[in-house]
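re the bet — no i am not wrong, look at it urself. input seq straight from the record:
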Amino acid sequence: MADILGIVGSARRWGNSDLLVRQALLGAQAEGAAVKAVRLTDLNLLSCTGCMRCVSGADDPLCPLEDDLAWLVHEIQAAGGLVLAAPTYFLGPAAVVKLVLDRLLVVMGRVNEPLPRVRPAVTIATAGLESWRGVALPFLNAIAGTFGYRPIDSLTALAPGPGEVLLDEELMARLFAAGRRLGRGDLEPAPVPPNVCPICRSDCFVLNGARATCPICGREAAIEHDGGQVTLRFDEVRGAHQRWTPEGLRAHVVEWVMATGPRYQAWRGEIKARRASYRDKEIEWLSPRPSSERSET
């Protein structure tokens, strides 16, 4: 029986995200699975510096930042199932979640390693108001997809106060059942509501004529009108043409990200020459720290 890993993207212990992860893990335990959990806010995670070493094409594309990301990546890759929950803070996930997502080119850049097997995941965003739930859930599914996980259940739980999810018996039953499916290794996704991206559960789309594109996963749909009703009919997409598959991510890194390296090197001298004129301009850069404590390259 594979281990199931729970990840809490919230600093609040016994808060809604914490409790929902616990509930899903209890469901997995009921099926005999071993479970463990981690809070992202307990880790030392640094912000990406944009150095691009992780997609340089080197044999050892490790991130040069010395923090806990490599440990977290190992734990996620080693698990047989994933539960990921985070609160919505001002229309998006808590900052630590986006910080992790910003660093995941280090996973996509390992093009010489075997592709990961598909494993089940449960993703949960929590929010106070339906009208302010924003786009936290698609970002959680982006993290799961980067590691090759397939969300078998994905939802936004509405509960304004800490721990209020415990009052929603239907929600807690759904999470326990989802956890049991994780414990069994079930890969069949839960039904997706109409006009919601079937991959990342986003309901925000870029419109172009009679077509709609999900900005998170790139899934496209035809916009159909039936009287006053608008329906999105999503295209059938498989393999490398779907962004959140190991094949799709690898194709993006090799065909686009790595391919920009030679292009940049060809223009590097010109860019440096044009940048020189900016060094002569006087601009006051504000900071609460003395200038002696700051560095500028």
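see?? Helices lie at 16-30, 69-78, 95-102, 105-108, 136-146, 169-184, 246-257, 260-279. told u. also The first strand starts at residue 4 and ends at 8. so pay up
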